Amino acid sequence: MDFIMVVSRVHVRIRLLLASFLFLSVYGQTSGPYFMVTFPAVIESGSDAKFCVSLLKPNETLQMNIYLVHNNQSRTLLQETVEKEIHHCSHFEAPQVEGESVQEIKVEVKGESFKMTEKRKVMFKSYETLVFIQTDKPIYNPGQTVNFRIVSMDSNFIPFEQKYSTVSLQDNHQNRIGQWTNVSSRGLILQLSHELNAEASQGLYQLIADTGNRLITHQFKVEKHVLPKFEVTVKAPEEHSVGEEELQLEICGKYTYGQPVPGQAVVQVCRKSRKRYHEAPMISPCLSETVEMSQTGCAFFMINVSTFMNTEFEHKFEDYLDATITLTEEGTDISMVKSDKIKLSFQIGKVEILDSPKNFERQKVIEGRIKVTAFNGRPIPNKKVYLSEGERWSQKLLLNLTTDSDGLANFSIASPEHPTTEIRLRASVYPEEKYHGHKTPFFLSADTRIQLLQPATSYSPVFSELSIESSEEPFKCGAEVPITVNYYIVGETTESYSIDLIYTVVSKGAIVHHGHEKVEVEDSTDVRKGKISFKLSVVAELAPVVQVVVYSVLPSENVIAANKKFDVEKCFRNKVLLQFSPSKAVPGEKNSLELTAHPGSLCGLSVVDQSVFILESGERLNTDKIFKLLPVTSVSGYTFGVEDDLECLHVRPRRDVEFDRVYNTIKGVGLKMATNLAIRQPNCLMYKGMQYHRDHIYVRYRANLHGVGAPMAFHDYKPKHEHIETVRKFFPETWIWQLHEVGDSGSAQLPVTVPDTITTWETEAFCVSSRGLGLAPPVQLTVFQPFFLELSLPYSIVRGEVFELKATVFNYLSKCIMVKVTPEVSSDYTLEPSSDGKYSSCLCANGRKTFKWTLIPTVLGVLKVTVSAEAEQSQTVCDNEIVSVPERGRIDTVTRSLIVQAEGTEKTKSQSWLLCPQGNSVSEELELTLPEDVIEGSARASVSVLGDILGRALKNLDGLLRMPYGCGEQNIALLAPNIYILQYLENTEQLTTAIRERATGFLKSGYQRQLNYKHINGAYSTFGSGEGNTWLTAFVLRTFGKAQRYIFIDPEIIKSAKQWLIRMQRSDGCFIQKGSLFNNRMKGGVNDDVTITAYITASFLELGNTVQDPIVKKGLLCLKSSIGNLTNTYTTALLAYTFSLAEETETREHLLKKLNSDSIEGDGRLHWSQSASDDSGALSVEISSYVLLAVLTADKITAADLGYANRIVSWLVKQQNPYGGFSSTQDTVVALQALALYSTKVFSSDGSSTVTVKSEDGHSHNFDVNQNNKLLFQERSLQDVPGKYSIEVTGSSCVSVQTALLYNIPTPTEISTLSIATMMEGNCTKSFRQTLTINFSVIYNGALNNTNMIIVDIKLLSGFTADPGELKNQILVERVDSKDDHIIMYIKELQRNIPINYKLHITQVLPVKNLKPAVIKVYDYYQTSDQSETEYNSPCV
């Protein structure tokens, strides 16, 4: 039981002072020899360790032995016979340990009359390897590629090859979206990349590298962003005193290429009120003002701080000011916001005591100076200041003083009389000590203690001291730095003597330098002081910090010591330099990247647009990041486990000495000292039969009735060429990301082409070799066009519309130029000059000029508009100066695209055939017809030929449907066909590396996108919200399961989907239908649970589960019970396929027989529909595809089966759209799965055919199809539209032929089951930048109670833009996307005969004349024949 002893209710505070008695009682003698063995308390396992030995005053021949002792085993580290003083260091190899091992260093010194043994604990510790992950950028847009590198090193920055069991990439929902297994850093750098999908969810992503025993992580952001063109900086003090009335802010704006930003800044400064839940918040006082940016791009803003001070409610406000600066660029209205916080300090000044002595002598005066300064360091003249003595709350006033013009006041007071041995002086602007209330302005006071100068003995207080002078930091690598030690010796013998100043330099916890200087001290009665210096060679191994400790033994046998920490420049043994030549460039110019490193180094280079780092500074690869990896940089103590136990001493109490000062000084650099000198107090005392223990909080001794308490410890150990013309079209964010070797010469030159972005490029480069890691200081390449051109034109216009093409030229030269602007001549459009017709002009420094033409298109399609601006020679005087011509970048050329569309609505008609000549010839006749109301000039037709029915889909893997895909079902439906096509090509040995890479790229992107629709319980839904959807979850499960063969899919994601589906199975084996069907026409004549059970059971069987699997077994039982009463063709077809997969032949035959009786035949083709009235569309394709899958899923397939299948395929092929898909998502997925299976079954590696397409007018096209080009998409335009054509195929292999006819008609007005109506509103008084309102309503009046998902596709008027977010929160809207000049809105469903109203504002950004109407289209996603269209136009036309 610990307690502070109380005797007669008075605390017994026995302060222990170790005295000469301590030497006698512990060490047995009072003068020499003294030994000191210093070593690090913690030593890295297996390292080359060092300890240092000093032996002073050897009065006989001594034997010194030093051992490392562990588990009763002893290892000799040093054996030495000593006859004179020694100071040296020795090395030993630290033992290899796992984790930590505490051992003992034992020092024995013995002679004839002297014998001494000291033991000290030492810890050996294994450190983890250093690993860093570097990404090319801290922030990515969805759809961009994340490039990253991983490097492993030891604690000396020597890299080594590391095998990573996994490297994975997690999204912001902890889904693994990328994984690499068992990858090694061959060549010392592991470099990988991952392409994010365009729909990647936004948030923090994490790269995780697993070395087998630890995980290394690195985070980056995914966020939709536009790179800033300029940066805003704010210069403001971090802290401002409330005593200073004025606070100045400097606001600057700079473009990324270094030029000032013209414009205005709105500066708002507020002091926020504190939020307390039980109080209404106070109104925050704010100042807001607009300032004009000067020509330098900067502006100053003065704040009167008193505006924000409220004495009555001061406690309710935060102690900082919030400054928000919004800088708006002149001419573009582009804004950047910058925020800053300025802390408010209630300290208005401080008082300091200068030049006061450390000691006083009796009958002598004590002199010094007092300085008074304001918070900002300015001296305060004529300020009253008071000098007092005594403890804080019982002071005696000595002097009233007033400061001079320098804020100084001199003082002189008499020294205290006997028996006082210490005087405490306090200087203050307050005549008496006072408590400063919270949030009240105050001056800091000053204190000093001055001790009586007394003769030094081993039991008196030690006033002598050592100090190490400050030096300019950080120490530069390669320099020789003097370290200066001051000594100040008081009260020792007056005779002359010598002392040894012993110094040790520690870096990263290890001794790196040791030495000593002998100082001769002259005889004197006064204070002896002086200084010594030693030189320290700064090498890379000393970085980032060195700690110097110096100690000495005085004649009084007292030890004095001092330590100091110095920062060292963070440098590496492998010196890496990188530079661009030249260091400034114009866009598109050739440049050279010059790299220097240790010979044989492999270097990782990265060059990124500075704008990225303005947007998101992130964690960049720099020296700070590398050095933070070190397990130890500097040491300020060591753990409790290394503290040495101290014995209890039987002593008489003596006078005070300072508390473990020398011990803590040495401990403060992480060293231990085995010595026979008194450098530490014992842990406890025995006094009159009582034990007294040190209390580390009160620095006193406390009684312990039950033995010795454990000492405390400080836990501060850190575990851890001429270029004339520029044509700009290459604008990357990451320009260079590559590995490069420097070779034996140690240098390399990389020829590079400068991108077209006008910005500053920032480098990151590191190199690795056997010498270690090296990091190049970052360099910049400023890419700057002396002047440049910007074009303003809309994304698209409609034929008949005209607009004003604007070309704006900016001059960033410091001189005037004569600029001439010339558009390129084109047959696709005509340009009419604007009113002034002048296309050359003077343009002076920082000037801009806009040139205009009226552009009139003459053709439909994509036009290229090209304009050049040239600085030309001229004798014209501009602004009183002769114009100049830049040497580089004299011409700037810009090309932009413009789409010219036909009026009305585009229609597509395709006709397809699968023609198999079988050694003879087959032919088909076709006629391309156009409706009477076709829009003139809009018709175009083509014929395409492939040797494979899947070739068309293969060509359009990313666009099988010309439909939006912004929901979970559409996304997975676009992903699935990739798998079936890959399986087919793999099974038929046609899969090339190029096709695999392209298809797996789409799979990876689709996988990531699909995770946006995943629920936390493993299910999926159409928009990722609400309840999980059984159909969609089963669809995702079967698709992900098959995709695993080609890309990484997180197994946990598949497992969680499967588990969720299993929970949906009832005891009778049927699955519960959750969420809606994709296509409500699937319903009819059967319980929905049967259909979903068939679909899920088929999914499990496709993924390799057998009929013995309990889930499958129960599912099949459910299905069998419903076979007798099937009237739904869709369900029958799906069941036929399911029982084919289950190899239940009897049930399969029964179902196929029923389906055969329901089939629709014609022209030798075969198909099925849900009902007699519905013989077309998506559902017929899907049903027919399931029948085809059922027919082909059997152990043995006969020629009759293939003949039957061929008839189904012939019908399916005729339904294909021009892109290889069908009319919607589900029919496309199932049809391509069935066609892939059919193609695999009938594949032949022999044969060839020739296709001839002839028009009546004699135009002819020939196509050769053979085994080498059967997947090649061959396409020709057809000139005769309208017209009749014949197709003839001769040869031995089947070919797929398709014609596509596209044309425009006036927007149809006929009413279908869906209809849409619009009404426009707008203020037409403005000639430009009008805002119009589209009010539109959608209604369904079909036979069903509700629709499937509905898409509303709004084409914007030419020259207008809209915010899609405006529609997001409107009724029934699940999602809104924008693509090019269209807004796509997803409506969950419409109820019959209930109109839903919507509103969208559109804003004019470019004026277009003769404005034509735009079309709004509404359609059922899964039954695209249910559609309606309407036109709208500006009410101002």
Automatic annotation (TrEMBL):
SMART domains reported for this sequence:
A2M (SM01360), A2M_N_2 (SM01359), A2M_recep (SM01361), Thiol-ester_cl (SM01419)
Q: Which UniProt keywords apply?
A: Disulfide bond, Glycoprotein, Protease inhibitor, Secreted, Serine protease inhibitor, Signal
CDD domains in UniProt? A2M_2
Predominant location of this chain?
secreted
Q: Which GO terms describe its cellular component?
A: extracellular space
Show where the Alpha-2-macroglobulin domain sits.
734-823
Give GO MF terms, alphabetically.
Answer: serine-type endopeptidase inhibitor activity
In this chain the Alpha-2-macroglobulin bait region domain maps to 466-615
Give the matching Pfam families.
A2M, A2M_BRD, A2M_recep, MG2, MG3, TED_complement
Give the location in the cell: Secreted
| InterPro entries named in the record | A-macroglobulin_rcpt-bd (IPR009048), A-macroglobulin_rcpt-bd_sf (IPR036595), A2M/Complement_sys (IPR050473), A2M_N_BRD (IPR011625), A2M_TED (IPR041813), Alpha-macroglob_thiol-ester_cl (IPR047565), Alpha-macroglobulin_TED (IPR011626), Ig-like_fold (IPR013783)
Query: In this protein, which residues make up the domain named Alpha-macroglobulin receptor-binding?
Result: 1347-1432
Tell me one GO biological process term.
nervous system development
| Family that this chain belongs to | Belongs to the protease inhibitor I39 (alpha-2-macroglobulin) family.
By its UniProt entry, which PANTHER family does this protein fall under? ALPHA-2-MACROGLOBULIN-RELATED (PTHR11412:SF150), MACROGLOBULIN / COMPLEMENT (PTHR11412)
Report what the protein is called. Alpha-2-macroglobulin-like
Q: Which species does the entry assign this protein to?
A: Pangasianodon hypophthalmus (Striped catfish)
Provide the taxonomic classification.
Eukaryota, Metazoa, Chordata, Craniata, Vertebrata
